[in-house]
Design a protein that fits this description.
Layout (H helix, E strand, L loop, with lengths): L1 H11 L23 H22 L7 H10 L4 H28 L8 H23 L4 H14 L6 H9 L6 H33 L6
Bound molecules: protoporphyrin IX containing FE (HEM).
The site of protoporphyrin IX containing FE has 27 residues, from helix 2, helix 4, helix 5 and helix 8.
Length: about 220
């Protein structure tokens, strides 16, 4: 195996990174606290991979969504594991983003020139919470349905435009198949796409500015 790798490596140069690709400024005193953002990113990757697998069996329709989730959990090989990984990664992601934010805050790494990166980070938090909110409806069970009834009702309390916002979020006056498709589309397409773009900007700035030296 080693000889085969060496043979490929001599032609492909896998073991030496592209110039500058993996180079970035790091603080003189390293700490495990700098790993929190990387752990969050690992969870994002796990969410994307398990989400892609779930989407093979999940059916985003009023009549079939609930049954399809049951099938994933009970019949599909490793379905319960993949679903569990997706759910746990989502919960842990929120925890690790908050810990990462706390580390950045305590190290005062939001100060110039990193203020725009703080804002990009805040966007990732909003996108993550929105993904959790839209994903919660997808099992289409009683808990998901009523939780979404309560949470979307809050939107209607916004002065003047509350009723319009409620219609926009639900796709009508009630929560039904239209809401489910709307949430599914946001959950698997729009939000991950936005997350990809914001994370690209986040990492680009980390790479260009280096990680701050802490306190
Ligand atoms: C999915 C969400 C996020 C991921 C994957 C992520 C990832 C990362 C990574 C890998 C770093 C490099 C250093 C480190 O890990 O500490 C970093 C730095 C940074 N992040 Fe995040 N981050 C996320 C969310 C946030 C949030 C919510 C904020 C703040 C509101 C934020 C603000 C920052 C700032 C200001 C830096 C530069 C820190 C420094 O130079 O010391 N990030 N992020």
């Amino acid at each position: 195996m080693g000889r085969l790798f060496d043979w490929v490596d001599r032609r492909f140069s896998l073991s030496t990174p592209h110039k500058n690709f993996l180079q970035r400024g790091i603080p003189a005193r390293l700490s495990y606290l700098y790993c929190l953002g990387g752990i969050a990113f690992t969870l994002v990757i796990l969410l994307v991979l398990t989400g892609m697998m779930l989407s093979i069996y999940y059916v985003p329709s009023e009549a079939e969504a609930f049954q399809s989730v049951l099938r994933i959990t009970r019949e599909v090989r490793l379905g319960a594991l993949i679903r569990g990984l997706h759910k746990w990664s989502a919960n842990l992601l929120i925890l690790f983003i908050l810990l990462h934010t706390l580390r950045v805050f305590l190290h005062k790494a939001y100060r110039p020139p990193r203020e725009l990166n703080w804002i990009a980070g805040a966007f990732t938090l909003v996108l993550t919470l929105s993904s959790g909110f839209t994903g919660y409806l997808l099992p289409w069970n009683q808990k998901a349905y009523w939780a979404t009834v309560v949470s979307t009702n809050m939107v209607s309390t916004v002065p003047l435009i509350g009723r319009h916002l409620l219609y926009l979020v639900r796709g009508g006056p009630e929560i039904d198949g239209t809401t489910l498709v709307r949430f599914y589309s946001l959950h698997v397409l729009w939000l991950p796409l936005a997350m990809g773009l914001v994370l690209w900007a986040h990492f680009h700035m980390v790479k260009r500015q280096g990680i701050s030296g802490g306190l």
